[in-house]
Design brief:
The structure is a single chain. By secondary structure, the chain is of the alpha+beta class. The protein folds into two domains: about 170 residues, no CATH class; about 140 residues, 2-Layer Sandwich (Heat Shock Protein 90). About 60% of the residues lie in helices and about 10% in strands. The chain has ten helices and five strands; from the N terminus they run H-H-H-H-H-H-H-H-E-H-E-E-H-E-E. A five-stranded mixed beta sheet has the order 1-2-3-5-4, with helices on one face. Helix 2 packs parallel to helix 4 and helix 8 runs parallel beside helix 9. It is rod-shaped and about 130 Å long.
């Protein structure tokens, strides 16, 4: 089985060699712990010394085995003239058993050696009945309890340091996850904002440019080019504003104007101009009661949902009237856009579906509800947003 053990650590090899040579040197000069003992020849003291010295090579890889052999060796040493080097090696084996042994062993050894120390002290006091008997208990504690307690203290410090390191790594990992989620959420917000601000203008440009190319009429082409120019200028202004906000995000600057529901009339006025060629009309029904406006994020989300719904109507709605209804209460802000559903003649702009996804995300991020789908002859978009901005976790 020993062939499967790892190679001894170089410090353990050095410790074993130094300990054995120290013990041999002490024996050579006649220095022993109990010279009066003559049960065995003097050279017998070298046997437990060498055995315990060899155990030093296994103090990390097999601490329980080394402690068991060391205990037998230190007991055998008491039947010889004795070597202080053997006792010192045993204390190191006791220390290593606690530091490198299993957690259960590390917990039990300090308690066990403490009880043994107390028991030996009481037994020697009862037997010898002299104060010097306390020295036996002190020596027993120094040989067994003290190294076990030292090893337990060191092991606890190491485990506490390892736990602190793991907590620091977990904290760093959580911080990185939070940063990644924040970046992802910010990118999604920027994507929604960019889509809502620019898609309307680009859709109108696509529709009117197609009309100008397909209808051979100077008047139609002139009107289409006018609408294209107006939407190009507005789209470029929106892009510049967004780029400016992104570029100067870390600098102190006046915040840009945030669209509100009070600006819906101007939004529908522009939609009427853009949709006139497609036979579309736009009507606003503002049924909000008088009172303070909702929080800015809620009002911005409602405005963008209406804006994107109008963009989709310009791209896909059949000729007819597009109705925008806004309702409000102390708890909810509701917006509803109904546009004619059916086949449409003339130029159309392609859609990607990102608009519906963006509207749904805006509503859900604020804890609201969003639905979109066919409702009889209409395509209806509904959104209910909390008037008190109870945003959900992103």
């Amino acid at each position: 089985m020993l062939t499967h053990l790892p190679r001894p650590h170089r410090h353990d090899v050095l410790l074993a060699v130094v300990s054995v040579f120290l013990g041999i040197g002490l024996w050579a000069v006649g220095a022993s712990s109990s010279p009066s003992r003559d049960l065995l020849p003097d050279w017998a003291v070298l046997v437990p010394l060498v055995v315990l010295g060899a155990m030093e090579l296994l103090r990390r890889s097999a601490p329980r085995v080394t402690l068991a052999v060391g205990t037998i060796g230190v007991v055998a040493d008491q039947f010889t003239v004795g070597s202080i080097a053997t006792v010192l090696i045993f204390t190191d084996l006791m220390y290593a058993a606690v530091v490198y042994g299993k957690p259960a062993t590390a917990r039990r050894l300090p308690v066990t050696t403490g009880l043994i120390t107390v028991a030996v002290t009481i037994a020697t006091l009862v037997w010898l009945r002299t104060p010097q008997a306390l020295l036996v208990g002190v020596l027993t504690g120094l040989v067994s309890f003290a190294p076990a307690l030292t090893g337990a203290t060191l092991r606890n410090h190491r485990e506490a340091a390892e736990a602190a390191r793991l907590r620091a790594e977990q904290t760093a990992l959580l911080a990185e996850m939070d940063r990644t989620q924040a970046v992802t959420a910010e990118r999604a917000r920027m994507a929604r904002e960019l889509h809502d601000m620019v898609a309307n203008h680009l859709s109108v440009i696509a529709i009117h440019s197609t009309a100008a190319l397909s209808i051979d009429s100077p008047a139609t082409s002139r009107d289409a080019l006018g609408v294209i120019r107006e939407n190009s200028v507005q789209g470029l202004a929106e892009m510049r504003r967004l780029i400016g906000l992104l570029r100067d995000a870390g600098a102190e600057r006046e915040p840009g104007a945030v669209p509100t529901l009070d600006g819906l009339e101007a939004l529908l006025k522009q939609a009427r101009t853009n949709g006139a060629a497609s036979g579309l009309d736009f009507v606003l029904r503002d049924e909000r009661p008088p009172g303070p406006p909702p929080p800015a994020p809620v009002e911005l989300a409602a405005y963008r949902i209406v804006q994107e719904s109008l963009t989709n109507a310009l791209k896909h709605a059949a000729p007819g009237t597009v109705t925008v209804r806004v309702r409000g209460s102390d708890d909810l802000i509701g917006v509803e856009v109904g546009s004619p559903y059916g086949e449409r003649s003339g130029p159309r702009a392609p859609g990607s579906g990102a608009g519906l996804i963006g509207m749904r995300e805006r509503a859900e991020l604020l804890g609201g509800e969003f639905t979109a789908g066919r409702d009889g002859p209409l395509w209806r978009v509904r959104a209910s947003l909390p008037a008190r901005e109870k945003a959900v976790e992103a």
